[in-house]
Design goal:
heterodimer, B: mainly beta, four-stranded antiparallel β-sheet
């Protein structure tokens, strides 16, 4: 199966700073999603982005499918952005998502 | 519209017991998948069902089983519970299979003592 590597594993920011999270895949994927896991464990959908660029408010994401990586940009970070960010990809006939280990983001006031 | 709903939210069981977790997908979604997340790790795939048929199975022992009902809701059963089964169990639904966007429920936190 595919391997998903996320970097950095931990990130500490001051409120208002910008950040870039990266996700590398060992093979091409047909589905790629970014999630934010809240303190209660629920995975919140951020982007469904097998390729291209999308933006939603202060968040944007870019997937370069041919290079097998995706980037999540967070601008003007807020304390409510704290939590764990996961990327996940899928390929093959099953389509089940393979998750990375996540990036733990802490935004300090 | 209601999102993916899971029940119960928390559960404490004793080693050796059996447990059933339930999931209702978003209305109109026909695919349901189950994932296990242990502390500090990303979710791991357990099962996927589409149109009431099993379409995929992850690397989990036969103690884990699941099914999907005609209304597309799903149950995950775990027999002979071990301490290592303690985890957050997540259910996801999508409109299609295999590559539709997946939406997750709030999870069931299972503690085995």
């Amino acid at each position: 199966g595919i391997q998903v590597e996320q970097s950095p594993p931990d990130l500490i920011l001051q409120e208002g700073a910008n950040s870039t999270l990266r996700c590398n895949f060992s093979d091409s994927v047909n589905n790629l999603q970014w999630f934010h896991q809240n303190p209660w464990g629920q995975l919140i959908n951020l982007f469904y982005i097998p390729s291209g660029t999308k933006q939603n408010g202060r968040l944007s994401a870019t997937t370069v499918a041919t290079e097998r990586y995706s980037l999540l940009y967070i601008s003007s970070s807020q304390t409510t952005d704290s939590g764990v960010y996961f990327c996940a990809g899928a390929r093959g006939s099953q389509g089940n998502l393979i998750f990375g280990k996540g990036t733990k983001l802490s935004v300090k006031p | 519209d209601a999102g993916v709903t899971q029940s119960p939210t928390h559960l404490i069981k004793t080693r050796g017991q059996q447990v059933t977790l339930r999931c209702s997908p978003i209305s109109g979604h026909k695919s349901v998948s189950w994932y296990q997340q242990v502390l500090g790790q990303g979710p791991q795939f357990i099962f996927q069902y589409y149109e009431k048929e099993e379409r995929g199975r992850g690397n989990f022992p036969d103690r884990f089983s699941a099914r999907q009902f005609p209304n597309y809701s799903s149950e995950l059963n775990v027999n002979a519970l071990l301490l290592g089964d303690s985890a957050l169990y997540l259910c996801a639904s999508s409109v299609t299979q295999p590559f539709g966007e997946a939406f997750f429920g709030q999870g069931t936190r299972l503690t085995v003592v």
